[in-house]
Fold this protein.
Amino acid sequence: MTLYADGLPPLRDVIKTYDLRAKKSFGQNFLLDLNLTGRIARIPGDISDSVIYEVGPGPGGLTRALLAEGASHVVAVEMDSRCIPALHDISGAYDGRLSVHHGDALKMDELQLMKPYDHQKKRIIANLPYNVGTMLLIKWLTSDVWLPWFDSLTLMFQREVAERIVAKPHTKAYGRLSVLSQWRGNAKIAAKIPSSAFTPPPKVDSAVLHFEPTKPLDHTVRLKDLELVVQRAFGQRRKMLRASLKSLPVDPLVLLERADITATKRAEDLSVADYVRLAKTYATLRNGS
Ligand code: SAM
């Protein structure tokens, strides 16, 4: 059996040994090319000073690349119990620099998990299961405390979702995910990955998104208000704002005028800064001032 530089067998052999046939229910599309996982691991730059939080390591292709690139520690959360023994082999080959947790990433308390690494840089790097990717992104971007506990996110998404995250105003892809992500930081598409790179290949192409949080320009806007006005505006994106914002408990015409936004504009015409102003004005009006 060929062994890699890390002394571990090729991923195809790992899959055979532990019978890790991909299951749809877990959103499993594996990356078996360690050159490709190496490229993904290098997207954030030098990770040798970083602790990595990885969701869904599966048979460990990306995990091995993160460790080979020198991550000081990898904390991995995997839901499929079949993968755990294979991941323990990786931990053994890398002197315990990998901690494996069996569970659902949507329910994980990351602050608690990452507590032992308080004074180190922390990055999230993951080839996410498609079915929970957006939910996890929203969980991480809606942290009450901002700046958040992580220094960057490097995440695989369906290409169409990644394009929505980085989309600019006046485009069809611009929506709730774009406003939330761009309000919280800088997002870019760092790599496009064809579906043929995965085993089994998914129906759609993928892209790796790289995101770095930025300090809020305006501390006074509340996430709850921003989410509400954005949701109402894009909920009826083809309507003019004076109509789509009617379901808010304030007069939409007064709201728009006070926020200095033309009432005949549509959701996709507003910049992130416009939405921040709209949310703040909404909060003031609702409080009766
Ligand atoms: N990282 C591996 C790779 O690149 O080959 C596997 C990626 S596969 C797209 C997604 C992985 O996430 C699978 O191993 C799956 O079992 C795991 N997974 C699915 N839902 C999960 C959840 N809610 N929490 C943690 N892991 C999950």
